[in-house]
Amino acid sequence: MIESPIEVSQNLKALVLEKNILIILSQMKRDGRVDMKILPREFYERDPAEVARELLGKVLVRRLDGVFLKGMIVETEAYYGLEDPASKAYRGIKKFNELMFRDVGKTFIYMVHGNWLLNIVAHPRGGVGAVLIRAIEPLEGIEVMMKNRNVRDIHSLTNGPGKLTKALAITKELNGVYVTERVSKIQIAETVSEKFEIQESYRIGVKKDLPVKLRFFIQGNRFVSRHKIQNKKLRS
């Protein structure tokens, strides 16, 4: 059956439209806008321990000079307010820690031993708290991460809070940024990942701790920080 000129024209338009859609989808995928559902503000408006646990398996995204650096979160720690001796908010609200008392879903970045540490403000309404991102498994932009840290061993690239911020070029300049906005230079997105088992321990590197385990990590993941799991309660 021979197609009429009108049918031929319509088919050509459909093919062009389909091609354009594929091109747009391909560009969106490169830009991180496909298969990535950014976690909403409500996700962080809960108990910090609950948020810390559920951040495991999510994808941390860093927009850097037109390049997307991505890593799956594999280790976190939860921190509270005045009742938490290991928290930056333990002695009350100050200029440097006021973000922990404010809107959830924002970055809270501070320096320890020459390393910037990335936290996400998380707490119930009217509460205080944040979650420290301790380690990620590199997924995309690995060469850029390696260049940023000047290392070639992928397993030591982002297996610690100071390592991952250097790999992702995260500094104080990004303090107070919402991770819930698509235009943000730091985002955390939902992803479809394999099932995994979550382990808990007391937090690392703190002199005083709460009598509960607030460090969460994916069991068996090779990108978890290389620290012996603490099974004994620290002095509270």
Strand content: 15-25%
Query: Helix share of residues?
Result: 10-25%
The CATH topology name of the largest domain reads: 3-methyladenine DNA Glycosylase, Chain A
**SSE pattern, N- to C-terminal:** HEHHEEEEEHHEEE
Structural class: alpha+beta
State the fourth-level CATH superfamily of the largest domain.
Methylpurine-DNA glycosylase (MPG)
- Total strands: the figure is 9
The number of distinct structural domains comes to 2
Brief overview:
It is globular and about 80 Å long.
What does the model show?
The chain has five helices and nine strands; from the N terminus they run αβααβββββααβββ. By secondary structure, the protein is α+β, with helices and mostly antiparallel strands. Strands 1, 2, 3, 4, 5, 6, 7, 8 and 9 form a nine-stranded antiparallel β-sheet that branches. The protein is globular, with a radius of gyration of 21 Å. The model is unreliable at 230-236 (pLDDT under 50).
Question: Could you name the key traits of this structure?
Answer:
22% helix; alpha+beta; 236 residues; globular; 3-methyladenine DNA Glycosylase, Chain A
Topology:
Elements (H helix, E strand, L loop, with lengths): L4 H26 L6 E2 L2 H4 L3 H8 L3 E6 L2 E13 L27 E6 L2 E7 L8 E11 L1 H8 L11 H7 L18 E5 L7 E4 L13 E4 L18
Antiparallel strand pairs: 1-7, 2-3, 2-7, 3-6, 3-9, 4-5, 5-6, 8-9
